[in-house]
Amino acid sequence: MRFYVSKCHDTLNGITYSPETITPYLCLNPYYPASLKKNSRVKYILDSGAFQDVKTESRLTPEDALQRQLNFERKVGRRAESIVSYDRLVDEQTEDGVQFKERVSESIGKEYVEETIESAKYLVSQRKRLKGRQLVLSCQGTNADQYLECMEAILDIATPDDVIGLGGFCILSKSITYENEFYEVINKGFPLIRENGNTRVHIFGMGVFRVLVQTDIFARTNGIDCSYDTSSPELNAVFGKCFNPVEGQMASVFSKIQKMNGYVPAELAMLNVRMITDYWKLITEMPLPETDFHPGINKSRKERMKIKENEE
Question: Is the pTM of this model over 0.85?
Fold first, then answer.
């Protein structure tokens, strides 16, 4: 699994934060004023800003969204490796100016999927203008069937060099239902992607390692190079959390009163990036299963029912 560190800031609590000095892959977003060190050789995915536009309720046209990305690219001073289509998120909503994670209804989701497909079509129409950059064509959907329909529409306009983006799963950790839907999407979708001649998939903003590890194994057995991005190493470091490679998740290590007097967020964030990068190196060194492998929730029926009851 290729890990793209979402860099949101150049400093944390006044201390320089430069993950590009230790990782070759970043994800940048035109919403955040992050920059790159001139001597770094980092490659970066340029996100669309669609996630942030939910909170500000300032949905752009696909044309304006792309122009915002290109303006940001010029400001950074380096061409993006990949540029993302302006999807319409189905798992982010706002109320009274507050953004929260909740799936929209299936009917509204249908409208959002249509917008997502149209935005991808626009990006494809700009292929010549964007020469030298891979296109990341994002998918969305409120359930597995709707998601797969969107994916099929995206594959119809994709070339083999395009990256298929999986959006809408930032919400995954909130419910076993969402996790099951994700597994259904990739179990059915990865073979479709490979049959279409595409070999790159990128997952947006999801850092649940039990899911990512299974996804990585399944992707590799299907001849797919999979990647993901998350700002978790940076955001969690601000609150004194450190990556736990045994549990495959962030763990609270420091208390609030120890901030800047026990731990420095920028340094802790860099440590998180290093450990997660090393974690994936070790995972990819593991031999692949000799029999057919399909991702899924590794729990008994009794455990699954208990989780579902707690969610309800």
Answer: yes
